Amino acid sequence: MMRLPPVAPRPPAVAQILRAARPVLIFHPAQKTWPILSFPVFPSSPENGSIGFPLGAVLDACYAVAFNRRGRLVEKDSLALVADESFALESLPDNLLVVGDYLFYTVGENGQQEEDYEICSRFINWVPPAVIPSRWQGGELDEEQSNIDLQVSKSEVSVTVKDLDSYKCIITGVGESLNSSHVVPRGERPWWCRHEDIISSYSPGRRAGIADLNSIYNRISLRVDLEELLDLGYFLLVPYGGKIVAVVVNVTAQTLAYSCHLREVNFPDRIPRPYLFIRFIWSVLRKNAAALEIYAKARRKLKQPTTASIQEKTPDEEDESMEWEASTRSGDDHEGTGSSNRSGSKERWSDSGSSGGQARSGAAGRLTESYLKILEAQDAALTARGTLTMDDERAGRYPGFSAIERLKMAYWQAHPEISAVGGLDTAESPPEIPGNE
């Protein structure tokens, strides 16, 4: 009788990871309580790697958030100059910005430092500049390449892109499970159409425009999982050291960081580099949307005229006001509903100046501390788990998020006139993180 050899157990896998350090945080000089931009930092290599984030990428993100205004970066505590507007975008493209807290000031035409500048909190409101920072310029094509799209039908674009990329992922160099991925996201077609004239100017000497969004000039070959991670904001593609590199910006993506962080990407020349700049800004604004929106709303609230007869509201504020009034009316008829709770919460904050409001404010403080303790427990569970779920991504939860929430709450309590801005209801418990027991 023939005996089969026993099946050997799989050897334990040894995870090869990089662990993130404290992030680079960028603050608006008019509000220094919580950051408007956050850049997680991984070592540049597994052993004795440099700790920092590409300075040029940070400056370009600040430039876009300030509605394409140049500025200077200074250390938050010492106010020591890190990068001046006169050379920041040109002469220091490849330095690593060390972990720390920084302020970004815009600079006026006369060279004066400005701290009370508007910020762009949503990609849909961002206008691509006529002149892209030099670091993002490139992607020169020869005549044969610039006419190749004339020979490619819509049904053949995906196959042609993979063929032009030698059937290899531009990040891993491996030719398996490939997708033809968009550089400028295809979901931003309305934005693209609105700014088509500017975008067309990025590709002089060849046919460009709306056709580019789904053409070979806006498509790259990526492994399927990396395409999804790029869209989720786990990593960015940025110029660094004269190359295009992957920069991992999700603190839980430790395995991805080990294999890809600050590694050169074989980015094809057929893609105009300004398209990559657009993708970079899209990713940064999405990743920091919550902090940017809170600051933008707080700023609008503080700048509202106090006289009701001359008060003008933005469309967003009109929507918020109508929603508040509707929830208040519905609260009279539907006691205990979510609308009633929201309305009660806003009344509690708005009445904090009266004697009755002071009592309410004290109760709100207790609810606030209870709320933050729940967040801290969830934060600890998420950190121990070591991975983020899709629910975590959608809710903006990540290791360390509770500390940011505590800073926000402290600011709201210190500034009751804007405490309701941002939509946080301390009377409601936050959603539970899966796996938190």
Automatic annotation (TrEMBL):
Chain spans, region Disordered: 305-364
Return the Low complexity bias intervals.
351-364
This protein's source sits in the domain of life called Eukaryota
What is the name of this protein? HNH nuclease domain-containing protein
- Supply the source organism for this entry: Mycena sanguinolenta
Top-level taxonomy? Eukaryota, Fungi, Dikarya, Basidiomycota, Agaricomycotina
